[in-house]
Specification:
Length: about 120
């Protein structure tokens, strides 16, 4: 019986170690930008670039959150249906909450909440 409990405990520990741990949610402040336009020229941001960024967002372009420490590519549900949930925030200052990660040297944020910055 004791051996069975030990084997069961080891199996449970092994199974739990394969479950990926999610990072804590972070809240970042910045502007929603079209990643490619912004990479092409840093001045492609703000109200002067809003019409272009909105047009690209509606076509499903990759959008990002430009903060003081770089641009985070936005991932997750907010990018579905050609960025439908992002459209009202394009070229505006926002508070974005989500899981921040890095992959291949790129910063990513999987949004769980987005609101206009106060």
């Amino acid at each position: 019986m004791r051996q069975l409990m030990i084997v069961g405990a080891l199996a449970l520990a092994g199974a739990l170690s394969t479950i990926p741990l999610r990072a804590a949610a972070s809240t970042l402040k910045g502007e929603v930008v079209d990643v490619q336009c912004n990479l092409k020229e840093a001045k492609n941001k703000g109200a002067d670039h809003a019409d272009c960024a909105l047009s690209c967002a509606r076509r499903g372009a990759t959008m990002g959150l430009m903060t003081t420490d770089g641009v985070y590519t936005i991932t997750g549900d907010y990018t579905k249906e050609n960025n439908k949930k992002l459209l009202e925030f394009v070229a505006k200052q926002v508070e974005a909450t989500g899981e921040v990660t890095e992959k291949d040297g790129k910063k990513l944020i999987e949004l769980t909440a987005l609101a206009a910055a106060p």
